[in-house]
Design brief:
It is a single chain. This protein is of the alpha+beta class. The chain is built from 4 helices and 15 strands. A 6-stranded antiparallel β-barrel has the order 2-11-14-13-12-15. It has a 4-stranded antiparallel sheet with strand order 3-10-8-5, with no helix packed on it. Strand 12 and strand 13 form a beta hairpin. It is elongated and about 125 Å long.
Length: about 325
């Protein structure tokens, strides 16, 4: 009987070790573990990572204030640089622009009139100077009185003042036109800001506004993922931090199925240790260990879900 009990015991042990040997890398790594990283073998480090665009997830803001007339984006929409995302109420800016434009035409007419006055003053001054020069010659020959010569000189002086005044009016009128043109440009800029446009290519992740709402300048209208490669951001426990180097290969695994989602390469490893932040459950959580932040660039053509939490294996060799 003892022989059969011993045989059964040995068989149970064999089956136990056999099942453990069949586990995948993801199953060996307990992703529910509170630690940031678990060391499994001498040639790899396992960690929890989050998938993000290389430039990070950006909050798009309105950049102007006003009632939202139309929302031209939706969740999961791919957008291009320059594409209109949001249309704000433009009534005030339109009114200001039209008012500035209505003033510039009469002002240009006034400038034309002032320029005509300048030309007239120049012609009169030219004629007066010729008369004065002729009178000087006549006075030298005693053909006219000194009073006549003085009158011609006085007329030249008066016409010079009139010409200077007319030229000053033209300068002022041109300055007013420049001011109005500056106002028009300003109001056109304000008007253009009422059309919120994309500054780069990418994907809208989540729209945060609705038609009819009032938006302020800093109102977040959407979460945005810039176009470009994805990265897996992870945090390596200080015990293994010095073993991580740029250029090391990595495998990205699903936390739910353990399947390989993507492969990548470590392209950033922070030069300092800090408190963990990516996967900290609470801001008040006490810690006695430090971590090294590491970024893994996902190879082109493989796209895990943005924002997903995954397991990653960094190969140390």
């Amino acid at each position: 009987m003892n022989y059969f009990l011993q045989l059964a015991f040995l068989l149970a042990i064999t089956l136990t070790f056999s099942c453990q040997g069949d586990k995948t890398e993801a199953q060996k790594f307990d992703s529910t573990n509170k630690n940031v990283v678990v060391k499994t073998t001498n040639d790899r480090v396992l960690g929890v990572a989050r998938i993000e665009p290389q430039e990070g997830i950006i909050n798009l803001v309105a950049g102007a204030s006003g009632k939202i007339l139309d929302v031209m984006i939706e969740d999961n929409m791919t957008i291009q640089k320059g594409q209109t995302l949001l249309l704000l109420d433009q009534s005030v800016e339109n009114s200001q622009l039209q008012q500035a434009k209505s003033k510039i035409t009469p002002q240009k007419v006034a400038v034309s009139a002032q320029k005509a006055n300048v030309e007239t003053a120049r012609t009169r001054l030219k004629n007066a100077r010729e008369v004065m020069k002729r009178n000087q010659d006549l006075y030298t020959g005693n053909a006219i009185t000194k009073q006549t010569l003085d009158d011609s000189r006085y007329l030249v002086e008066q016409l010079e003042k009139e010409l200077s005044a007319a030229e000053s009016l033209v300068t002022q009128a041109n300055s007013r036109i420049s001011e109005l043109e500056t106002d028009i440009t300003y109001y056109e800029t304000l008007l253009n800001q009422k059309k919120v446009k994309a500054t780069q290519n990418g994907k809208i992740l989540k729209v945060s506004v609705k038609r009819g709402e009032y938006a302020l300048n800093d109102k977040v209208i959407a979460e945005f993922a810039p176009e470009g490669p994805l990265v897996a951001k992870t945090e390596i426990d200080e015990i293994y931090a010095e073993r991580i180097k740029t250029g090391q290969k990595a495998i990205i695994l699903s936390q739910t199925s353990g399947d390989t989602l993507a492969r990548g390469t470590v392209f950033f490893a922070a030069d300092y240790l800090k408190a963990k932040s990516l996967f900290k459950d609470q801001s008040t959580e006490l810690e006695d260990r430090r971590i090294r932040e590491v970024h893994i660039k996902i190879e082109e053509g493989q796209k895990p879900l943005i924002g997903s939490r995954v397991d990653c294996i960094i190969l140390l060799n």
